[in-house]
């Protein structure tokens, strides 16, 4: 039995794995550098995403690794708790994901409002863009999201007087230009991923012109591995660290499972098993955390590249992890040639794509409440923090749902003679009971009333009792009767 018989899709999966590797390589390095950790840790997370998570069941074609969506949260965690504690946080988040998957809670993440998720991504995108603009000019970004945005004009003005800063900014701008224009290149040229092309071209330009720009610091794969110690886990006893663990868990899980739903729409193969996918992500984060590396999620950019490259089974994502491992082991010095502003340009472009401009416009036209949730979530993440911003978005979503669930409309048709016709529609709950009774009690007492409840989707006990009492009072001696039709049972 030859390989083709045993693995009928090996050729397609092999080719797709190379494409995904080329897409993942600059992103792994860029996310790590933007997160304030050694570049090798991004590669380690990518390797674990391929070799560990890639082997497990869940979503067969989506690819996991370090994601731009967690960059802001990781940077804040490293700044507040230090790099040695990051591994403990990631490992703990992975354990929570594993437990949630075992309890079959994965499918419930699909119930999270899409507006909250898109608002979360938009807020992350704004913070990434602001912070990486500082990196593009070789400046240090302020700690807070508001500080990053407010301080940008001053940082750019200061950069205008520095040759080194201008050279760095030019490389960053050139990277973004390559990424934007790459999609307009001939199809044959586009077989090389745009991010990789941008990094290679800017690295060559930096070497050719001896530009005074910062490059990635290299310390070797084994040197970057820092398993968390007991002190690191001891830090998790504090409320701030526990909140960070919950934020990692919530955001990584939501991003992974929403990515899985998107990937399912791209192919005709087996559908995602959400609980098993959550357990696969949890296992990957446990291993990644044990190595002191970055948290992982399923990444839609790599996953889409995997599907579009013709992948048929999970072998493609496992092989992409093998190529990342070989690169990190055999060519680590190549990382030292990559200019920091080039990675900043890649992340600025990635942050821009996280902001759902079209969705905001379409939501505003059709569902202004959802658009408001999206915008408030994004602004809260920038102004406050990632975790609190997401909680604010979720709270707003719950409030809106409660409002929609309690919405009720009373339409009165009075022809001047005969009975007054009243139509109730919507959801009759205790939250709208006072308004409903005020409207009914305002109907004429000296006329018969026909109350039609056929438009109600729900009638709770409190409203049912109140309607019956009102009908009895209106039909008492000396008043006209009330005829109720289509009463919800």
From TrEMBL:
It is a multi-pass membrane protein. The chain crosses the membrane at residues 14-34, 41-61, 81-103, 115-139, 159-182, 194-216, 236-258, 322-352, 372-399. GO terms for biological process: transmembrane transport. Keywords: Membrane, Transmembrane, Transmembrane helix. One of its GO terms (cellular component) is membrane. It is found in: Membrane. It comes from Streptomyces himalayensis subsp. aureolus. Residues 10-377 form the SLC26A/SulP transporter domain. This is SulP family inorganic anion transporter.
